[in-house]
Design brief:
This protein is α+β, with helices and mostly antiparallel strands and 201 residues long. It contains eleven helices and four strands; from the N terminus they run αααααβαβαββαααα. Helices cover 54% and strands 10% of the residues. Helix 1 crosses helix 3, helix 5 packs across helix 7 and helix 6 runs parallel beside helix 8.
């Protein structure tokens, strides 16, 4: 348990370090894997979190049952809200404000150049209210990724969390997933040649 605590502490501390690269290539032809370099400590810790899924799931269900009942939260309304967000956003991420895993996933998405919507449920799981707790439980039903955040959807499909996003980047499959979901990079439409402007230039 002491080793796990030290690993999380190292991951938290390194989540906010900036990394410098000596990559001389610039411009639109630079590949995503060269632009994005996930934090190694966060990657290890995120993969280790999967061992705690059963504990987090039980805790999340209890928290949602208690706080949801107190706040009179309708689980069907929460489901409908999640479905709406998934349908109206090509890339959607649910996060905690203080989570190093959420921070790393947001950093990766920022560097990718793809637009996304971030819904921050709260600072951390233990600070969630009734609706946020119920949202966390509903998000946990998407795939086999547990109730921990971040939870990332591309084209309405849950790809998992930070560890799965890192894997997509490292395997060079992030652009492929975005293309399949018909998500274009920010400013991509503005960079496409216009027939009239090319005629008169």
């Amino acid at each position: 348990m002491k080793t796990y605590g030290l690993l999380l502490l190292a991951a938290s501390a390194s989540a906010f370090q900036t990394t410098s690269t000596n990559n001389a290539r610039t411009g639109p032809l630079r590949m995503a894997a060269e632009e994005i370099s996930p934090n190694a400590a966060i990657k290890v810790a995120a993969n280790g979190m999967s061992l705690l899924k059963p504990i987090f799931s039980a805790e999340a269900s209890l928290q949602a049952a208690v706080l949801g009942a107190l706040a009179k939260i309708d689980p069907d309304e929460v489901k409908a809200t999640i479905e709406f967000e998934k349908k109206t956003n090509g890339v959607l991420i649910y996060t905690y404000g203080l989570s190093p895993f959420s921070s790393e996933a947001l950093s990766i998405l920022d560097k990718s150049g793809y637009p996304y919507k971030n819904i921050e449920l709260g600072a951390e799981w233990f600070l969630l209210g009734g609706e946020e707790s119920q949202t966390r439980v509903e998000l946990g039903k998407a795939g086999n990724f547990g109730t921990s955040l971040p939870k990332i959807f591309i084209g309405g499909e849950c790809i998992g969390g930070c560890a799965e996003l890192v894997n997509l980047v490292e395997e060079g499959k992030l652009d492929e997933a975005m293309k399949k979901a018909k998500v274009s990079k920010k400013g991509a439409a503005a960079n496409k040649p216009n027939f009239l402007s090319s005629m008169f230039s």
